[in-house]
Structures are given as structure tokens and as C-alpha cells.
Specification:
Histidine-containing Protein, Chain: A; 3 helices; alpha+beta; 97 residues
């Protein structure tokens, strides 16, 4: 039986790109689901559960990242990840002091 596969393309809008905390949030989001997830930028493809691999993409503001999930909750995990990207990984806007 074939596992459902879904893909989604997201744009990095966070001014700091996909930084360490963002990569950790991505990996944690993937681990809360059953599906296997890969992230791809250009020709580089990495495991969505590996923080260092996610960081190795070097995803900067304006970059497109393709998310691919395979498993029963493929759409749910992609919804979770898309929300992280669109919310700029819940980063608080910096306030001048």
C-alpha cells in the first residue's frame, strides 16, 4: 500500500532566515507527527528531524523551501510547518531600547 505524499512550497520571510531556534521548531514539529518529512532548497534535500541538516540549507529571507511529507498525516505536518514559516517562527519583533 502506498503512503500518501504531499508537497508544499514556502517562502522564508523571517528577516533572520531559518536560524537555530527556527530549525529546532521545524524539527520538533516534524517529530510530533508520524510522517517522514524532507526539506529541499535548490538541489539540497535534508531530513526534517535533523536540526543541523535544516541549518545546512542556509535558507535566507526570500528563499523558497519545498516541504515534502510522506505518511498518514502528511497534510497535517505540512500545515504545521507552513504555519511556522508564515508566522516567522513566532519570532518577536525587536523593539528599540
Amino acid at each position: 500500500m502506498c503512503e500518501p505524499t504531499a508537497t508544499r512550497t514556502v517562502e522564508v520571510t523571517n528577516p533572520q532566515g531559518v536560524h537555530a531556534r527556527a530549525a529546532t521548531l521545524i524539527a520538533e514539529g516534524v517529530r510530533r507527527h508520524q510522517s517522514q518529512v524532507a526539506l529541499q532548497k535548490g538541489s539540497m534535500r535534508v531530513d526534517g528531524t535533523e536540526v543541523l541538516q535544516i541549518l545546512s540549507l542556509g535558507a535566507a529571507p526570500g528563499d523558497q523551501v519545498v516541504l515534502e511529507a510522506t505518511g498518514e498525516d502528511a497534510h497535517a505536518v505540512l500545515d504545521c510547518l507552513e504555519e511556522l514559516f508564515t508566522s516567522n517562527f513566532h519570532d518577536e519583533p525587536s523593539t528599540p531600547t
